[in-house]
Amino acid sequence: MGQAARPGGSALAGSAGDPTAAVPVATVGCMVLRVVFADDNFLVREGVSGLLAQAEGVEVVAAVGDAPSLLRAVEVHSPVAVLTDIRMPPTNTKEGIEAAKRIRARHPRIGVVVLSQYVEEDYAFELLAEGVAGMGYLLKERVSDLDELVRALHQVTSGGSVLDPLVVEALLARRAADAPLLGLTDREREVLEQMATGRNNAAIAQTLFMSGRAVEKHIGAVFQKLGLVEERAVNRRVSAVLAYLEARGTHP
What we know:
The chain is of the alpha/beta class. The chain has helices at 42-53, 67-77, 95-106, 121-128, 146-157, 165-178, 186-196, 201-207, 212-225, 233-247; strands at 3-4, 33-38, 58-64, 81-85, 111-116, 118-119, 135-139, 162-163. The chain folds into 2 domains: 27-176, Rossmann fold, CATH 3.40.50; 183-247, Arc Repressor Mutant, subunit A (Orthogonal Bundle), CATH 1.10.10.
């Protein structure tokens, strides 16, 4: 679940060499920053476009309201940077994320910054899963600070990355919560997830289309990796399930 943005906050995190370093606007060069901006809210499009127009060396070459229009604008205008909302029509879920990944895949020299109303860890993970170079994730509250916004756009166009401090905070918290499960394979996670629903070994085997021997092997590996080999059989199973629930944030 996303974490609500809060006002204020520190300088943006990110740079080409050090993802935690803030880069002054004065160091980003003097090339014209050609930007395509996408947001389904007309007032936001006009407001942010007007704000960017006040920045020296920045040109908004297109402002559009949906992901298909964004992709077309990139092909037509060949920008050096894209600024896009995450949630846009038709589903208002993650069209901006999907468009950002397509743009980076087809045009790796174009930097992309996505904007979100809230810190949404799942979307941030998806956006950055294939690499952080040339990508940024900011909360919408940052657009009111022109210097920070322009700095972020320059940062991604130079191959760096920019993450909102609140996004970094949320991702680190999630990674810490996931730590006990990081060593498990995908299959071991699936078996542990089934254990957490209360299924016995036979039911797990049937659900996951595995043999009973394979289930026992995976459960043994889960116990080993979670450091539960010394506990009694019943306690190991309970402890493993508790570790899973705690990591998922669903412990009662």
